[in-house]
Amino acid sequence: MYKFHLLTVSIFSFSILFGQKSDSLPKVKATNFETVDILAYFNKLPLLGLTSSAQNISKELIETQGTTTLLPAINTVSGIRMEQRSPGSYRLAMRGSLIRSPFGIRNTKIYMDEFPLTDAGGNTYLNLIDPASLSSIHVIKGPDGSLYGANSGGVIRLQPKGFDVKENQASLLLNGGSFGLFQEQLSVQRKVNEQYSFSVDQSYTQSDGYRDQSALNKFTFQTAHKWKYSDKNELRVLALFSDLHYESPGGLTEFQFLEHPTMARPAAGPNPSAEEQDAGIYNETFYGGIAHDSKITKNLSHTISVFGSHTNFENPFITNYEFRKEQNLGLRTFFSYKDTVNTKIRWEMQLGFEGQKGWAAIDNFDNNGGVKGDAQAKDELDNTQGSYFYRAMTNLFDRWTIEGSIGLNHMKINYNSLYPIVANPEGTIDFGNILMPRVATSLLITKNFAFRGSISKGYSPPTIAEVRSSDQTINTELNPETGINYEIGLRWESSNRRFIADLGYYFYDMNNGIVRQLDEGGAEYFVNAGEMNQQGIEALVWTYLITPKDKGFIRELKFQTAFTYNHYRFGNYQVDENDYSNNKITAVPDNTWSNTLSFEFPHQIGINVSHYYMSAMPLNDANSVFSDEFNLVQLKATWKWELSKSLQLEFFAGIDNFLNEKYSLGNDINAYGDRYFNPAATRNYYGGVKVGF
C-alpha cells in the first residue's frame, strides 16, 4: 500500500522572535522579521533587560519545524531536550535529566496563558496540544518556584491563538507521507470588533508508525475567546478537548535494535509481547479556564483565573491494565502595582496565590490480551498544593534591572488503598511548607551588551505517578527534590537587531534527586538518589546571513544555532549494594547542538534545513550502557501561490532523517532485561498543501 507521511507544514520565513527593545534602543527597519517581547514575570519584557535565561518560539517557527509535534521546535532551544518514544508518546527534560521521566514531564511547570496545564499531581499532558493551535511558546529556564509554584527545571508558557488576533484569517491543511501518516488541521481566527475576538482550531492525525504496535490516532478541538467588555476589564475563555490513542511498542535490546528495529517488544519469560497485550495509551481529556483582568486604577491591576480538567486514562501494559480517572480544579490570582517615579526610575510589584486540588482514582487489572481481567489494585489519591508569591522589580536609568521574589509552597497527598486489603490503608503524605526565594539582576554595560545573574531555589515534590507508580505500591518515603541554582549570563544584540547572541552558565546543586528504577516484572518505582551536581553552558546565536531584499537569487538567509554542554554528576548515591557515586547522571548527554538555515528565493519559494546533534549518554545509573551519538537532518521546501487577496495556496514537501541515521530517540532508562532502545524512523518523506482564506 502506498504510504504517506506528514512531518510538517512549512510557512517558510524561519525566525525566533525575541523581546522588543525599549524606545531608547534601535529597531529593525521594515522587513519580514518582526520583533516580539518575551512574556515573563507578568509582563512582556525586552530581551536585554530580562534577568532570566529565556527564549520565545514564534508561531512561524512552530509551523516551519513541524505540524504534528512540538518536538523539533522545542529542541531549537538550548537547555531543553524533548524526545519521542513512538508517535504521540513524548517526554521533556528542561535543565535536568530524563532519569525521572520515563514518559511525560516531571519537574517543569507548563501554562496555557494564565492557566496551569500542569495538574495538581505534577503531571503535564503536553501531547494533547495541537501545534497549530498555538501562537507562541515562551520559555523561562531554571528554577522559578518563587512565582510559578513547585518546579526545578523551569517554566514554559504556551500562548493559544485567539487572545491576540490582529486580523481575520483561516486555513485548512492536508498532508501525508511515509508510514501511513495523515493530518488535517482547520484553524479560524476572527476579530469581530475591537472588543471581541476568538479562534477555533481543530485537528486530526493518524499514523501507522515506523515500528509494529506504534499506530497513532489523535483528535483535538480548541477554542479561545477574548472579550474586552469595558476600557478597564477583559475576559478570556479557553476550552480544549483531546481524544488521543497511541500504541506502545516497548523497548528493545541492543541486538534487536540493530537487527530488527521495526519490531515491537517480543515476549520474554512469563511476560507476553507488546502486540499480544495491545499495549498503548487512551487519553480523553477536557480542559478549560476563565481569566479576568481588571485595571482598578492607573497603577493597580488584578488578574484572576479559574481552571479545571477531567481525564479518562487507560493503559493496557505488559503486566496489567490500568484505568485512571483524574479531576483537577484550580485558582490563580494576583495584584500588580506599577509606578514611574521619574524618567529614570520605574518599579513594580506583584502579590498573589496559586492553588490546585486534584482527585485521582487508579485501578489496575490483569491484562488478558488487551482485555480487562481480574482486579490487582485500587487506590484513591487526592492532591492539594498551594503557593503564595510576591515579587518586586525596579529599573534604573533604563540600564539596570533588579528584582527579588519569594514563594511559600505547600503540598500534600491523601491516599486510600481500597484493594487489596492492607494494614494501614489510609494516610497523608505532607511535604510541609517551603520558602522559595529568587534574586536577580540585569545590567546594560552598553546599549547592545548586557550582563545578568540570579540565585534561586528549586523545589520539585514527587508527582502522583511517582508516589503511586506501576508497581502499585504507595511510596510514602519519597522526598522532594530541592537545591540552589546559581546563574550568570551575557547577551549581545547588534544595533540593527540582525545579530543576537546569548550565553549562560549555571550550577544547580540538587539534593534528594528522584530516580526511576524497574523491578523484575518491568514495573517501575522511584527512589531518592541523594546529590545531583548539575552544571551547564547554554549558547544561542541568531543572525541574518543575507538580509531581506527584493532582488537577487537568494532574497533572504537566516541562521540560528543553539549549543548545550552538560556536566551532570551524581554525588553520594547508593541503591542497595550498588554505589553509583560520582557517575554521570543517567539520560544526560554531554552536549546537544541545533542548527537551522532558512533560505528564501524569488516567487515565494523557501527551503529550510535543520540539523540536530546529540552526543552519547548513559542509559543506566551504573554507566555500563550508553546510547550512540546521532545527527538528525531535515529538509523542507515550500512554495506559496497567491490566487487572490482572499485565497492563498502553500505547497510543501520534504525529507525527515535525510542521513538515514539508525538511532534511538526516547531510550528506556535503567531498563530491566537490557531493553533500553526505542528505534526512531529511518529516512522518510512528506508533502501537502495549506489553503488560506
From TrEMBL:
Its main location: membrane. InterPro entries: Beta-barrel_TonB, Beta-barrel_TonB_sf, Plug_dom, Plug_dom_sf, TonB-dep_rcpt-like. Belongs to the TonB-dependent receptor family. It is found in: Cell outer membrane. It is a multi-pass membrane protein. Residues 275-657 form the TonB-dependent receptor-like beta-barrel domain. This is TonB-dependent receptor. The keyword Chloroplast does not apply.
